[in-house]
Please model this.
Amino acid sequence: MNNLPEIIRTIPLSHYVALSSALFLIGLLGVLIRKNIIIVFMCIEIMLNAVNLLMVAGASYRGDGTGQVMVLFTMAVAAAEVSVGLAIIVMIYKNLKTTNIDLFDQMKG
Amino acid sequence: MDKIFYVLAALTLITAFMVVISRHPIRSVLFLVATFFLISAQYILLNAQFLALVNIIVYAGAIMVLFLFVIMFLNLSRDLERFSSWMPIAAAGISIGGIGLLLLSAFRVAQTNVEYTGNPEAGLVEQIGEVLYRDFLFPMEVCSVLFLVAMIGIVLLNRKERELPSKIPLS
Amino acid sequence: MSELTFKIIFIVAVFGISLFVAMYTTYAERKLAAFLQDRLGPNRAGPFGILQPLADGVKLFFKEEFIPRVSDRLLFIAGPAIFMCTALMTSAVIPFAPDLEINGTTYAMQAADLNVGILYLFGVVSLGVYGILVGGWASNNKFSLLGAIRAASQNISYELAMGLSIVSLVMVSSSLSLRDIVDQQSGWAWNILYQPLGFLIFIVCAFAETNRAPFDLPECETELIGGYHTEFSSMKLGLYLFAEYIHVFISSAVLASLYFGGYQFPFVSDLDPGPVKTLLGGLVMFAKTGFFIFLFIWIRWTLPRFRYDQLMNLGWKVLIPLAVLNVLITALFILF
Model:
């Protein structure tokens, strides 16, 4: 546990930026492609985690705890958002009997 | 020993990709749990031990259980999406490529090779506690109100509507 | 020997000890149940039935292993494995004995001394839900699904009260590391004297988390046939049942470390560090753990089980307010 910060010194921050961007793009791909609303929700969580990873990497590089506290708040807000979102999805399923987002067109026209 | 970052990064990207292309929703959830585990491992590598465990407790331990509950209640055993045409995938690929290009160009110009000026104590619980309670006390209290509002909202959303007694018009 | 070699040997030893103690907890349960019910327990396999767990294991191995037409074969096989994994992972942070000092080098009797040890425990406990949910879902059986959902909701409800009672304990000891908490309880200053209400809440939540004692609605035979392990046979069922006993052992060890002083005992703590102190400390720790295992078994065969709504009522409306009150009282005590 004591020699962990030495590992960080050998990995430049740009690699963390690259990993975070790739993860974000994968999440975005999921949101655009999938038709099941629950899977879309999960891909939004992937995007949030990519951003969290970048913030923690930045905070560790500068020795500043602010980034990690920000991540704590992001996690809290994500938890609240997931609960409300899933409650809404359950209600939609009760009314429309489907989770395919192509069929959520009650408000069209 | 420093190759471990690249191994973890590759595994994270693989499991995240499997979340996106899995046909079975429950397998997607389990791959996502694996992704969260790997991201927690990255946090430990960055010496953010408290956040790594909080990530597991909150995301992998609570939020994903919620997802599993909903999938089980809605009884989504197999994904019923049909592969109709290449157009959505092509469009998604082009937009992802465009955004990727944007990010690449932004990070070429930005100063990302900063000097490492960290101190090893930064990720420990005591430091985070100090920063949280000294600088961010108000947002923390607001977070608790946020949770209260979310809970009330969820209970309200799922209440059964009571049927009002209908007034029979006297003809 | 080098640090790494010692660690590997120690991890294998802890693994073996967990399995061994869980095995003999099954034997102790049957003997104690028999004693409470005024009959003899198993006494055929070996003198006094000592070899009974071995016989049970062999029986489970030889049973027919069939996989019904399940919704997902991979998940069906993975469910018990996940449950067993999370049960064994918790034993990594428990301090079993004081540090062993031989020829100047100190060997820690704890597989991993994380400085966020209690959070790690909490995290692994919240992962235990997955084994139940995945197993119950993959069985393709409505009773299993109902049992799995009941078990999962019971598990997550009692996790909250457990976390809150741990918060007040951490306030008293100002450290999240299990070794620091045990080290601070030297002499007579066991944590139960400082946190009696916290101890009560924690022990009730420990019963609920291990799906045992009055809280075993998800798996009792009179309610849901078998609950989430209805469709499992042979060694997969064996893994579920065995993992439950490992949970009992680990919960007892955690209770002993957090509230009853772990390996500390009034006169043992004053000895010089060395093999004698380590041995005595280890014996003290196992004695306390054994007492809590006895308590688990005793309560199981004495109290009737809770109905599901009574259970949820207790978790949300009684234990969580009590735990918050405990935090408040602890904070006031620390301030003044």
